[in-house]
Structure formats: structure tokens, C-alpha cells
Known about the structure:
The structure is a single chain. By secondary structure, this protein is α/β, with parallel strands linked by helices. The chain contains nine helices and seven strands. It has helices at residues 11-15, 17-24, 29-38, 57-62, 77-87, 124-137, 159-168, 171-176, 181-186; strands at residues 48-51, 70-74, 93-97, 110-116, 138-149, 191-198, 203-209. It has a seven-stranded mixed beta sheet with strand order 3-2-1-4-5-7-6. The longest helix is centred in the middle third of the chain and has 14 residues, at 124-137. The N and C termini lie far apart (36 Å).
Amino acid sequence: MKKLSKVEVKGAEAYFYDELMQVLSGFSYNRFINKAVQDLHIKNNEKILDLGSGSGKNICIMNNYTKNLIVGFDKGSTMLAKSKKRCKPYGNVKIFYHDIREPSPFYEDFDLVFISFALHGFVDNDRDKIIKNAYNYLKKGGRLCILDYNEFNIDEKNIFIKYVFKYGECPLASEFININLREKLSKFGFNEFRNSYYYSNLVRLAVAYK
């Protein structure tokens, strides 16, 4: 199948995901994630939902900024086990098995919904479902924060970036970088956009408000 998603990491790759990302990023991944979470501008006592919470690394960092409820949704068995173990010391953190394409009627009125390097791995119709769910989870004035690839023309990038997108990433990522994310989010009622950029503008934290 041409549009084969690689967003769900399994097995040993999932178990050592954070360590693998640290090596592949030239040992900059930890610093990058800490900076990205800092750029969320989490206020004291904000309630947060992490869609595709993975290993729980991001949640543990966010927990330094708020002691209110932090919920993580994921469906990878290895990632769930790792995140539950990692987050066990924090009584305000709850990790659940849940497909983020499906709505959850039990969680709403979050101040912040976060999704990190997951949206690019879905077909566009599923991306719309995730964004719609995120909008419904948020309270009025809450914000959706998407940490993922920025929009760019792959033909203008160096051979290394071209190689990564051709052989390392799923074809869905190559499609994602051509999407006008601001325009897409606007269709669901989001506004007041701001962006932060990383890795020479290849990666973006897009923030939009309900």
C-alpha cells in the first residue's frame, strides 16, 4: 500500500524510542523536546490532553509546569506500558488506551490539547477527525498545539532530508508537508495562530485557539 503509515511504533523501536530519537537527532532530541514544551507556555494548574502520548516523555516534562490533570491517549501496547511505568509516580497523570481518531465523551474542557509527531502519519480524512476531536475536548479559549513537520518544498531541501522522507518516513509525511495547516484548522473553528520553529524550520509547533 503506497500510503502506509509508520506513525504507530512497535516492538524494540517503541521500547527504545526516546533513546533512538536522541541518537538520530545528533543528541539534540532531549533539548528540542524540552524547548518545545517550554514554548507551549503552560500556565500553572492547566489541564492537558496528549493525543498519541507515546512513551510519556512529553507528559513528564509538562508535569513540571502543571499539577492539574494530564491525560494521555495512545494505542500502542509497548508505548502504553512504558508511559504508564514512567508516569506512575504522578497521581495527576492518567494514561489510557484510545484511538485518537475516535471521540471520547468522557474527557472535555481541557486548557491544552497536544499532539506530537503523529498527525502527519494519518490519511487526511483521519487528520480531520483528530482535529475535530481536539476542538471538542477543549474549553472555550483553550489551545491546540501541534508539534510536527513544517510546510516546505521537499525538492528544495538537501539530499539528506530527501533521503529521510523517501526511505525513513511514510509517504503520508510527504503529503503532510504540503498541507496549509492554518487553513485546515480554521475550517474547524480555530483561530489566533502562532508558530515556533526548530531544526532550521523543518519542524514547527503550531498553536491555535478555540
